[in-house]
Amino acid sequence: MSLSSGRVRSSLKVAVVLGAALALGGCFQPMYAGGTMSGVLSPANAGPAGANLAAIDILPMEGRVGQQIRNQLIFVLTGGTTAPAPRFRLDVKTSVVAAQTAVVDPYTDRPEVETAGVDASFTLVQVGSGAPVFAGKAFGRATYTRTRQRFASERARRDAEDRAARIVAEQIRAQLQGHFARGS
């Protein structure tokens, strides 16, 4: 008899825990979440902050790294979907920081690890009035390994600049998202 009463108690405990989990499951929602049937959330569906992010037109930028930042911003702000009519314009000025040597081989005096950097300053402007709404700065740094093969080192530097550009785009998105979440 004690064996069956032990099973009943453990089954009852499991039922209570599952019931509580199901009851509380609808109470939690991510901060910028919206509802989609596909499970993929585009920023445009993520409430007022997401709708404002998707309505930002990003002006073309100079250089290869500037284009990488622009492409990444377009993707992270719209989620890869078609952007609505722009209500804001984002002016971004970028500069690539000269490679900085982090580690030097003590026997050959050659750099082994270097850091590539990208700095950006941006201004969010209202499309109709041309008035600045928000301004900020972002920076990205990424390390890469130098080798004795010149082309491999050059490609590694370029890939590090691309990683730094993605970091800059994410920082800009986060700052804009915070600005719109405050209701400004």
- Determine the fraction of residues in helical runs and give it as a percent range: 40-55%
CATH architecture heading of the largest domain: 2-Layer Sandwich
What low-confidence regions span 5 or more consecutive residues with pLDDT below 50?
35-41
CATH hierarchy class name of the largest domain: Alpha Beta
Give the terminus-to-terminus CA distance.
67 Å
Instruction: Give Rg in angstroms.
Output: 24 Å
**CATH fold-level topology of the largest domain:** Double Stranded RNA Binding Domain
Number of helices, counting only DSSP H or I runs of 4 residues or more: 4
Largest sheet: 4 strands, mixed
What is the compact description of this entry?
The chain has helices spanning 2-24, 47-54, 63-78, 150-181; strands spanning 56-58, 88-104, 111-126, 132-145.
Describe, in plain words, how this protein is organized in 3D.
The structure is a single chain. By secondary structure, the chain is α+β, with helices and mostly antiparallel strands. It folds into two domains: 1-30; 38-181, Double Stranded RNA Binding Domain, CATH 3.30.160.150. The chain is 43% helix and 27% strand. It is built from four helices and four strands, in the order ααβαβββα. The protein has helices spanning 2-24, 47-54, 63-78, 150-181; strands at 56-58, 88-104, 111-126, 132-145. It has a four-stranded mixed β-sheet with strand order 1-2-3-4. A hairpin with a 6-residue loop joins β2 (88-104) and β3 (111-126). The model is unreliable at 35-41 (pLDDT under 50).
